[in-house]
Write a structure and sequence with these properties.
Strand order of the largest sheet: 1-2-7-3-6-5
Oligomer: single chain
CATH architecture of the largest domain: Beta Barrel
Number of helices: 8
Strand content: 25-35%
Helix content: 25-40%
Amino acid sequence: MLYVNTEVNGTPVKAFVDSGAQATIMSPDCAMRCGIMRLMDTRYAGVARGVGTAKILGRVHHAIIKIGGAEMPCAFTVMEGKDVDLLFGLDMLKRYKAKIDLEKNALCFEGIEVPFLHESEIPRSFEEAEMNEPTVAGPNGTEIGTKTGAVRPAGATASADHSVAAGPSTPQVHSQPQPAASAAAGKAPEGTSSSGSRFAEADIEMLVGSTGSSRAQVIGALEAADGNLDVAASILMRFDDY
């Protein structure tokens, strides 16, 4: 992950540089800290759809951001559901002709080189949220995060769970399962399809036919979308990018 130190309206913010994001995004909490929430245009409120959904609160059309020694105007989309304070997206990278130079390990623009932060300086909240977020099955055994869209190798989630389990042991309290709970667990929920899924067979077949995805991917997308066909279709369309 590539982070740089910035200042927005005089407030220090660690920005995640992401050329894969179309817009520059700020969390509501960060906008409050920077004192620019009052500038938000709520006419731009809506819902962002991709891998998962996020609520867009509005847009700040103009605020000053300082990167390195340069100060420049910047526009921010204020969005919930992101685990980063500020995501510096492609819109601002193109506007200021910025270049991600991995050889120099820096963000370069207008003759300025801003070094990317060392791993020890990167906020841990994003990494922790990324590892704990729900995933859906992707192509070739990969897993795709429903919030960040991050693609992980097969078994990455299981490996992370194993690492947590292998940590220092803590006292465990074991209780006998209640008979009623056991009976409920063994009872199939009503309305399930013949394959054991809780979703209608017609919906599964429709998404398989319209997206070309596998049955497992369709069921995973429906689980992530809580049964919403439009959101599930959006998730499956995202698979085509990988």
